[in-house]
Design goal:
The complex is a heterodimer of chains A (180) and B (160). With 180 residues, chain A is α+β, with helices and mostly antiparallel strands. Chain A is built from seven helices and five strands, in the order E-E-H-E-H-H-H-H-H-E-E-H. The termini of chain A are far apart. Chain B is an alpha/beta fold. Chain B has a five-stranded mixed sheet with strand order 5-4-3-8-9. In chain B, a hairpin with a 2-residue loop joins strand 1 and strand 2. Chain B is globular. The chains are: A alpha+beta (180), B alpha/beta (160). The interface between A and B is medium-sized, with 20 and 31 residues.
Amino acid sequence: MRTQFGAELTLPVSEERDHIQGPAAAPVTLLEYGDYECPYCGAAYPIVKQVQAQMGDGLRFVFRNFPISTSHPHAEQAAEAAEAAAAQGRFWEMHDHLYEHQQHLEAGDLHTYAEELGLDVERFDRELAEHVHAARVRDDFMSGVRSGVNGTPTFYINGTRHDGPHDLDSLLAALERAGP
Amino acid sequence: MHGQEQKSTALAPGSTAPEFTLPATPDQSVSLSEFRGRPVILAFYPEDWSPVCSDQLALYQELLPEFQRFDAELLGISVDGVWCHLAFAKDRNLHFPLLADFEPKGEVSRAYEAYRSSDGTSERALFVIDSDGVVRWSYVSPVGINPGADGILRALEEMR
């Protein structure tokens, strides 16, 4: 039983459950497990944007939460904030806003971002206070653990963990190899 | 970078886990036999403070509630001394024992076939030991790669 476990995505991408950009029929799916306070995820954020711009409809991008609170005390709260925005149909705006303001993830900051995005702030604040979205964040986290996520960001390309570097050229090359 | 040779095995499943007593703090020691009757996860890692170790142990800290569901005890082990471990655990918010395989250096790591003589550190090796003290799963990761936790969880599940 000295098995070396392959790093495959154990929770398949779901159009209903997941936060997705790009067409369902895209030949390549890039999935990221990320932490909003993690500097490496912050560095990957504009790279993913560039990859999306270059590949257009050829790429579907999925984001799941993987907050490592032990290292990043604001990460859990930020993840729940993104999910609270998702509950109002505004996940990606909040996602982008959080990565563009990684150094400012205090409760007051999150409240301000919800206002800036024009969310129902009362509902947003209440859902954060009651940790309404904590279970979803934990489900994302555990799905990552069971898929072999070992740090953030961890990327999967068409369901297989991408173990190489994730600078723009490397990531693009790997995505193109996975394509048709 | 560390030495090139890559060891891919450690003490195999089915082996009796070698008993040890190692310091966890300047005035406290931990023995493997204290945990008889419960599963034990041993996480050997090369060094406090090195980037991969820190991510790996932060992930395990995050997963303590999952390990507790199996009543499993998690023990980290490296050749660093207790004061180094204390500072590291405090800085990184780690709330599980880090044992010092410091004197004689690496003795326990060697007993588990998880010592890298070329670097003078432990391998990045994981062991899941059952409630009778038998190794049920072991895994050696390339030193620079964080092995994650899915293997540990699967081993704990299979022991149920």
